[in-house]
């Protein structure tokens, strides 16, 4: 019965170790989010390329990434890519895998946001002889960003909750550290509960922050200069 009783002393003892691992989890999420946003935008813009071959190639690449499990992609990057001379640390592999996987999903969010811009905006840009880059930078993206914030935020939170999969390649994130603590002390209740609480707290804080960003973002967008 003792294994199912809460031990506050043990919980306080292991909390610093779990909080230290939380830094790794948050770092992987932060870097993965930045990479995912970048890749999502790149995929979305390439899907609008005048080249039909490039459009189709990016479409099937995105579909392939979205249709295969994240864990398989993590294993492939960590264990198979070294066969081709590309080796990365567990953290960088996790960041790359998370960013690429969720970048494929975000590309659809960004593409729908860009497609939602009125046709007249594009025609006005052409009438002003704006370059493609200036059209996206000064007219399209500032207006498309606000509608994309909620879905982008949801995917980032989902990415955060997927970080335990990185333990499969020996990355010491929160859940992996909790498993190690549990196996060494034969007590799993406290470490797993603490990890669950931290995931809940971080997710709630992130959701609140995303909501505040959406509320404060001007509906008419802003000029990216």
Percentage of residues in strands: under 5%
Would you state the CATH class? Answer: Mainly Alpha
Gyration radius (Cα, Å) is: 21 Å
Q: Mind telling me which CATH architecture this is?
A: Orthogonal Bundle
Query: How many β-strand runs?
Result: 0
Number of individual domains: 1
Helix content class: over 70%
The CATH superfamily label reads: MetI-like
Largest sheet: none
Low-confidence stretches: none
Order of helices and strands: HHHHHHHH
User: What structural class is derived from the secondary structure elements?
Assistant: mainly alpha
The mean pLDDT is 89
Kindly identify the CATH topology.
MetI-like fold
Shape: elongated
Number of helices: 8
Distance between the termini: 64 Å
Question: Can you walk through the features of this model?
Answer:
The radius of gyration is 21 Å and the shape is elongated. The protein has one domain: MetI-like fold (Orthogonal Bundle). The chain is mainly α and 225 residues long. The chain has 8 helices and no strands. Helix content is 76%, strand content 0%. The longest helix is centred in the first third of the chain and has 39 residues.
Describe the secondary structure blueprint for this structure:
Layout: H1 8-46, H2 52-67, H3 70-80, H4 90-115, H5 119-127, H6 132-162, H7 174-185, H8 189-216
Main location: membrane
Domain ABC transmembrane type-1: 22-210
Family: Belongs to the binding-protein-dependent transport system permease family. HisMQ subfamily.
């Amino acid at each position: 019965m003792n294994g199912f009783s809460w031990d506050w002393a043990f919980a306080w003892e292991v909390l610093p170790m779990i909080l230290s691992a939380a830094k790794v989890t948050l770092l992987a999420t932060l870097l993965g989010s930045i990479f995912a946003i970048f890749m999502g935008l790149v995929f979305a813009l390439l899907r609008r390329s005048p080249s039909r071959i490039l459009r189709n190639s990016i479409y099937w690449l995105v579909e392939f990434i979205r249709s295969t499990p994240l864990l398989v992609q993590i294993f492939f990057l960590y264990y198979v890519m070294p066969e081709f001379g590309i080796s990365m640390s567990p953290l960088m592999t996790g960041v790359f895998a998370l960013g690429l996987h969720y970048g494929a999903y975000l590309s659809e969010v960004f593409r729908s946001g860009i497609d939602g811009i009125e046709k007249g905006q594009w025609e006005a840009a052409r009438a002003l002889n704006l370059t493609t880059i200036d059209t996206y930078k000064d007219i399209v993206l500032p207006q498309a960003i606000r509608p994309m914030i909620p879905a982008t935020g949801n995917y980032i939170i989902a990415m955060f909750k997927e970080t335990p999969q990185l333990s499969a390649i020996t990355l010491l994130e929160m859940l992996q550290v909790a498993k190690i603590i549990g196996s060494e002390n034969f007590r799993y209740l406290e470490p797993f509960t603490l990890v669950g609480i931290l995931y809940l707290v971080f997710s709630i804080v992130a959701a609140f922050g995303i909501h505040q960003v959406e509320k404060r973002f001007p509906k008419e967008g802003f000029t990216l200069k």
